[in-house]
Amino acid sequence: MAFSNHLIFLFVLIVFIISGIKGDDNDLISKECGKNFTNNDNLQANINNTIFDLVTNTSAYGFANSSHGSGSNTVYGVAECRGDVGVQTCSECIANAAQQIQTTCLNAAESGIWYQHCFLRYINSNFTGQADMNVVAMWYSTENMTNTKVYTKTLYELSVELWFTAPFRAEQRKFGWGQIENHNLKNSNDETIIIYGMTQCAWDIDNVACSKCLGNAFNITESACGEAAAGCNVITKSCAVRYEIYPFLFFNATAVNPSKTTRSIIFGNI
Ligand SMILES: *[C@@H]1O[C@H](CO)[C@@H](O)[C@H](O)[C@H]1NC(C)=O
Ligand SMILES: *[C@@H]1O[C@H](CO)[C@@H](O)[C@H](O)[C@H]1NC(C)=O
Ligand SMILES: *[C@@H]1O[C@H](CO)[C@@H](O)[C@H](O)[C@H]1NC(C)=O
Ligand SMILES: *[C@@H]1O[C@H](CO)[C@@H](O)[C@H](O)[C@H]1NC(C)=O
Ligand SMILES: *[C@@H]1O[C@H](CO)[C@@H](O)[C@H](O)[C@H]1NC(C)=O
Ligand SMILES: *[C@@H]1O[C@H](CO)[C@@H](O)[C@H](O)[C@H]1NC(C)=O
Ligand SMILES: *[C@@H]1O[C@H](CO)[C@@H](O)[C@H](O)[C@H]1NC(C)=O
Ligand SMILES: *[C@@H]1O[C@H](CO)[C@@H](O)[C@H](O)[C@H]1NC(C)=O
């Protein structure tokens, strides 16, 4: 009896873990529908055409911008996949995003939808090229690192690379990734831990706007997640920052040799 109860518990636990992982990658993060309009087929057609372009080109290139119409009915759109997702995942995500927007944001002249793997936005005014630092979503790990002094310093080292170097060298998805390892982060038991991080800017903003947006996002990680949080994820309209003490990126960067006495850091961009 006790044995079968354990089995049921184990089964439920496994289902939870699997659905938890799936949800983390595929679930909707946020959706906004605004500026309702009525009886404007011209505007609706421009929205439809813009979304269609965004899906086509994002599936092919991983990012896209598009514009249709004239005057107050002009629609501007931007879409992008996270830099570390592959072609298949990217096109599935953007097709789903478009379908969700079209079925649930009816008659909205300004909409945006954000998933783990991609986002899509359109507005009937030209918003492209400007860093929009409004927060879309944020969450953090409830686990705290107790050796805050070492943790903060190590995290700062990684953040500097992710902020200054990675997005600047990226020409397309403006995606930076990196990892740093150190010991004595969680406590003083000499345990080696790797911190994994990423940064990404919407591809329509330039390097100056990207830098400003990421600076703001990193400031939010400090003030909102706390300097001891073992993970933090801040998504704003034009950029995103995330770090965790477990690997969450969808590719394997380069192997790092665990070492208790030396610290190593690697980073790159897509
Ligand atoms: C826009 O697309 C929606 C959903 O595909 C469709 O129902 C609607 O008729 C289209 N409207 C125009 C004006 O093209
Ligand atoms: C898309 O972005 C490029 C590069 O910033 C710009 O030159 C082009 O005008 C934009 N196209 C549309 C349709 O907004
Ligand atoms: C799609 O991308 C191609 C290649 O970058 C570009 O020439 C074209 O203008 C884009 N089309 C739209 C509608 O965004
Ligand atoms: C806009 O339209 C949606 C339905 O498409 C509705 O739920 C929402 O309340 C409307 N918002 C405003 C401000 O009228
Ligand atoms: C939208 O505005 C940006 C600058 O903010 C400009 O570079 C771009 O050409 C504009 N797009 C269109 C289609 O006018
Ligand atoms: C982690 O630290 C924050 C404040 O920095 C605190 O609110 C939270 O309760 C701590 N979490 C745990 C699990 O101790
Ligand atoms: C981030 O915070 C620092 C220190 O408080 C401040 O100097 C800087 O202007 C902030 N950056 C942004 C982009 O908000
Ligand atoms: C990453 O590396 C680990 C361990 O070497 C391996 O098990 C995993 O399949 C790799 N993942 C990808 C996406 O290559």
Number of helices: 5
Instruction: Using the coordinates above, name the CATH class of the largest domain.
Output: Alpha Beta
For the biggest sheet, the summary is: 6 strands, antiparallel
- Gross geometry: elongated
In the predicted model, the low-confidence regions spanning at least 5 consecutive residues are 1-25, 253-262
Bound small molecules, by name, code or SMILES, are: 2-acetamido-2-deoxy-beta-D-glucopyranose
CATH architecture label name of the largest domain:
2-Layer Sandwich
Side-by-side strand order of the widest sheet:
6-9-10-8-7-11
Q: What is the gyration radius calculated from CA atoms?
A: 21 Å
What this model shows, in words?
It is found in: Secreted. This protein is an alpha+beta fold and 270 residues long. It contains five helices and eleven strands. The protein has two domains: 27-128, Gnk2 domain, C-X8-C-X2-C motif (Killer Toxin P4, Chain A); 136-269, Killer Toxin P4, Chain A. The strands form two sheets. The chain has a six-stranded antiparallel β-sheet with strand order 6-9-10-8-7-11, covered by helices on one side. Helix 2 (41-61) runs antiparallel to helix 3 (87-104) and helix 4 packs antiparallel against helix 5. Bound molecules: 2-acetamido-2-deoxy-beta-D-glucopyranose (8 copies).
Write the SSE topology:
Blueprint: H1 2-26, E1 28-36, H2 41-61, E2 63-68, E3 75-81, H3 87-104, E4 108-115, E5 118-123, E6 135-140, H4 148-169, E7 175-183, E8 192-201, H5 207-225, E9 232-236, E10 239-244, E11 264-269
Antiparallel strand pairs: 1-4, 2-3, 3-5, 4-5, 6-9, 7-8, 7-11, 8-10, 9-10
Helix pairs in contact: 2-3, 4-5
